[in-house]
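Task: sequence design from structure.
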């Protein structure tokens, strides 16, 4: 079930001495990022703040992910399993999740990299980071700073290149031009605080009719 402040009393905190296992999953890529614990207060704070708050078993206190590093987890949804004693937290990280500086807490950076579509979610994170960093040497940032008309123009140009490649060139050229189009489309979406998730949801809505 989707957990809200209204139905959180239905969760079975008593089974594990007041703590529920919280599995954190990237809301866009599906990648498992970390596992922590929540008591009822941590869950209430998570739902209230819109950022992941956990219970530290070693320090015996609440802690918000990123409270010192700034790498918070912006919570999209919280779900409970069928027994209502485990939580799935769907979130978008604002930086590395692990305290060791890696994308997730499981060491192996290739958890989902064998999935061809995974890199699109990773690319969105890279674009977002480039826009936040303020690096004047970043093409991504310079493009967005040139204004929405310039970004839109690039998307239009790349779309034309894709169409031309489909008619006049081979598959390799078509793939290359499509990659350029996807990159610039992601930049355009992120500059408007949108992402591929919104596009995916719209396509799913149309599919359902």
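Answer:
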């Amino acid at each position: 079930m989707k957990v809200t402040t209204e139905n959180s009393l239905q969760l079975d905190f008593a089974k594990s001495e007041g703590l529920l296992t919280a599995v954190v999953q990237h809301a866009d890529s599906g990648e498992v990022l970390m596992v922590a614990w929540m008591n009822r207060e941590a869950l209430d704070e998570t739902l209230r703040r819109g950022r992941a708050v956990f219970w530290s078993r070693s320090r015996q206190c609440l802690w918000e992910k990123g409270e010192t590093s700034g790498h918070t987890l912006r919570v999209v949804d919280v779900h409970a399993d069928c027994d209502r004693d485990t939580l799935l937290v769907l979130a978008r990280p604002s930086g590395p999740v692990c305290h060791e500086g890696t994308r997730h807490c499981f060491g192996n950076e290739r958890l989902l990299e064998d999935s061809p579509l995974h890199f699109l979610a990773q690319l969105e994170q890279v674009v977002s980071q480039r826009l936040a960093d303020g690096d004047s040497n970043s093409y991504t940032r310079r493009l967005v700073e040139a204004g929405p008309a310039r970004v839109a123009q690039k998307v239009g140009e790349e779309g034309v290149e894709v169409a031309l490649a489909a008619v006049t060139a081979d598959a390799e050229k078509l793939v290359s031009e499509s990659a350029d189009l996807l990159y610039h489309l992601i930049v355009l979406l992120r500059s408007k605080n949108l992402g591929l998730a919104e596009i995916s949801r719209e396509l799913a809505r149309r599919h359902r009719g």
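Residues 148-168 form the longest helix (21 residues).
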